[in-house]
Amino acid sequence: MNNITNDFGDVLLWTFWIFIWVSALFIWFRCIFDMFADRTLTGWGKAGWAVLLIFVPWFGALIYLIARGRSMTERQMEAAHAQQAAQEKYIQQVVGTVTPADQIANAKALLDSGAINQDEFNTLKLKALT
User: Fold this and answer.
1) For 77, how many CA atoms within 13 A lie in the half-sphere containing its CB?
2) How does residue 55 score in pLDDT terms, banded at 50, 70 and 90?
3) To pair with 45 at 20 to 30 A between CA atoms, which of 39, 78, 108, 112?
């Protein structure tokens, strides 16, 4: 019986080829996703790139990376900045804009209502001012 992995060299060779195959798949999918996410590319342009990437995938991905690689990076950076800005806006909405004066006024209202004592009020006031 002939085993395909008779020695360690065969295992290394198979590992290398599997790594190359998985890497090529990642690159191919990245090109496909970038092509459809690009708002500047026309429908005909997307159709042309799709035909190239589907019928000659690895050669098409290589051409795509050469022709549009820089703009891929720019689009990815713009998307990351937009996501970060949206996240910061959401955080500001949730947290609200509370000034130290508002925090002290809220603490004073709690003190006046009897919910906290003078020591707790002083602690909250110190936190608001720092």
Assistant:
1) 6
2) very high
3) 78
The rounded distance, in Å, linking the Cα atoms of 66 and 82 is 26
Are 11 and 5 spatial neighbours (Cβ–Cβ below 8 Å)?
Answer: yes
**pLDDT value at 116 more than 70:** yes
Is the pLDDT at 1 greater than 70? The verdict is no
Neighbours of 120 (CB within 10 A): 13
Query: Can you tell me the distance from the alpha carbon of 118 to that of 11, in angstroms, rounded to the nearest whole number?
Result: 73
What DSSP string runs through 77-126? Answer: HHHHHHHHHHHHHHHHHHH----HHHHHHHHHHHHHHTSS-HHHHHHHHH
Maximal CA-CA distance, the chain: 89
Residue 54, Cβ density class (10 Å: 0-12 exposed, 13-18 middle, ≥19 buried):
exposed
What percentage of the chain carries pLDDT values higher than 70? 95
